[in-house]
Amino acid sequence: MEHQRTIPVSVFSAVDKDIFTQNIYPLRRPAVLKGVPLGPCSEKWTVDYLCKKGGDKEVKIHVASVPQMDFLHKNFLYRTLQFGKFVQRASETKHSDFFISENESYYLRSLGEDVRKEPADISKQFPDLAEDFHIPPFFEPEQFFSSVFRISSCGLQLWTHYDVMDNLLAQVTGRKRVVLYSPQEAEYLYLSGDKSEVLDIDSPDLEKYPEFVKAQRYECVLEPGDLLFIPALWFHNTLALHFGIGVNVFWRHLPENFYDKKDPYGNKDPVAATRALQALERALGVLDELPADYRDFYARRMVLRIQSRSYFTHQSAGTGQGCTGDTQSTPTSTETKLNPAQIQT
Q: Could you tell me if 183 and 287 are in contact, meaning their C-beta atoms sit under 8 angstroms apart?
């Protein structure tokens, strides 16, 4: 979008665990990692191979008449297909068999065996395919939360949202554009829970969402074999430029008791954050007892108090496994703290 400042996501090559944890992770910014070994999946995961390996396993999928999926208004249907038939349809541009129309779009986000309790794990839901995919060893095994297998039609765009855990998005096949926004841009994103109400981020309705132009966007295009590090709380929006297959790996970077134990997706706010938001709603209810001019005055005092007490305004000096805050410094397309030989612009 021409009115938003766009910053390219920094790109790094030859990244191992030490480089990631010491030089990339502490910055708390997205990063594209090239050349990280993912196993034979990049060569093996063709349509024919997936259909053969996936067999008759039934999967729950999203089906939409338009490629721009909107979770808030549910402009899609949930349907069940055999995995092989789903892959075949998702790889097509027009369909002879369809639910809505011959141009419908498809999206698979793998789920745990008990969707209400268990996180997705590719080694459990797709064990034969999991043998082909090697999870990068950038975090400790006990921090692992989920590995989510994803397949999408060409042109499919997913809504802007954030997750509460750190995340590596492995783009195994196909190309994908990813647009990201810092947690500190939240005030411009018109949030409803963890999702932005602005569905079309490239041509937004600026009469309805005038502040959206102030949000600073980061952008990258993932090629097959690329990894994208998405720090917790960073908003992201994906657009499949081709039929594509990917795997998201989420891990707990905070102590385990910070997270909601009943969250199989990794997108429920931390327990303390949920309590704070509930307390805010109660406080706003109390303010409603006042006349409008008093309510306005005391609401502004509350905002000022929150800003002075809780806004993150200093340069972070966190370490690889414990840093949870972003920085306020002006972002650039390369990071001066890193060896230039490991940066591709």
A: no
Question: Tokens standing for 138?
Answer: 């950038």
C-alpha 329, offset from chain centre: 23
Q: Cα–chain-centroid distance for residue 30?
A: 11
Residue appearing with tokens 């043998």: 131
- Provide the 10 A C-beta neighbour count for residue 253: 21
Q: Which one-letter amino acid corresponds to residue 179?
A: V
Length of the chain equals 345
Strand, helix or coil for residue 245: strand
Q: Is the separation of the CB atoms in 8 and 220 below 8 Å?
A: yes
- What the block records as the tokens of 123 is 């080694």
**Can you list the alpha helix ranges (DSSP code H) found in the chain?**
17-19, 41-44, 47-54, 83-90, 122-125, 127-130, 271-287, 292-310
Quickly count: other Cβ atoms within 10 Å of residue 336's Cβ.
7
At residue 160, does pLDDT exceed 90?
A: yes
| Three-class secondary structure of residue 10 per DSSP | strand
Q: What amino acid occupies position 98?
A: F
What does the alpha-carbon distance between residue 7 and residue 30 come to, in Å, rounded to a whole number?
Answer: 11
Separation between Cα atoms, residue 77 and residue 173, nearest integer Å: 25
DSSP line for 122-159:
HHHHSHHHHTT------S-GGGEEEEEEEEE-TT-EEE
Position 335 scores a pLDDT of 38
Residue type, 298: Y
The tokens 């790109």 sit on which residue? Answer: 11
Contacts of 280 (CB under 8 A, 6+ apart): none
pLDDT digits 0-9 by tens, 38-63:
999 999 999 999 999 887 899 999 99
| 326 pLDDT above the threshold of 80 | no
**Strands 76-82 and 195-196, sheet pairing:** unpaired
Give pLDDT, residue 1: 55
From CA 129, how far away is CA 54, in angstroms rounded?
A: 8
Q: Are 168 and 266 in contact (CB under 8 A)?
A: no
